[in-house]
């Protein structure tokens, strides 16, 4: 049989953090950026299907000088929930993805109709971590 390294019936909890910032640090250390953080739970439904769910999803922004270490996280101090309650609810709705759609050899994630692209992109960024080909 195939082995993905994840056990069917198990739940896995992770802390998610992502950030995007823009600036030209070689000219000036000032940047503008946004960061997101959340708890995410994955439940392995069967050999190929996984359910994901974000909880405690928060956003923050920053506009100012970068610390000396460019690899450090953005110094965000104003964390809070998404300002749009519909988006806040949608990002925390469960989502489903396949480890591998074997007939096509592709990774597949279900996307709800009307789902904003940024929500799909964040979900994909987390789901892609689990895009692992079987060991056997």
TrEMBL record:
Top-level taxonomic group: Eukaryota
Q: Which residues form the Vitellogenin domain?
A: 8-132
Q: Which Pfam families match?
A: Vitellogenin_N
What GO annotations for molecular function exist for this entry? lipid transporter activity
Enumerate the UniProt keywords alphabetically: Signal
Return the protein name: Vitellogenin domain-containing protein
Say which species the protein is native to.
Meganyctiphanes norvegica (Northern krill)
């Amino acid at each position: 049989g195939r082995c993905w390294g994840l056990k069917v019936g198990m739940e896995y909890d992770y802390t998610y953090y992502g950030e995007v910032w823009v600036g030209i640090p070689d000219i000036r250390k000032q940047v503008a950026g946004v960061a997101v953080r959340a708890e995410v739970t994955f439940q392995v439904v069967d050999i190929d299907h996984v359910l994901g769910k974000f909880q405690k999803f928060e956003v923050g922004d920053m506009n100012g000088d970068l610390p000396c270490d460019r690899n450090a996280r953005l110094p965000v101090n104003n964390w809070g929930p998404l300002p749009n309650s519909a988006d806040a609810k949608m990002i925390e709705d469960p989502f489903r993805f396949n480890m591998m759609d074997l007939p096509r050899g592709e990774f597949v994630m279900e996307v709800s109709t009307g789902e904003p692209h940024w929500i799909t992109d964040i979900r994909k960024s987390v789901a892609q971590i689990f895009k692992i080909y079987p060991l056997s």
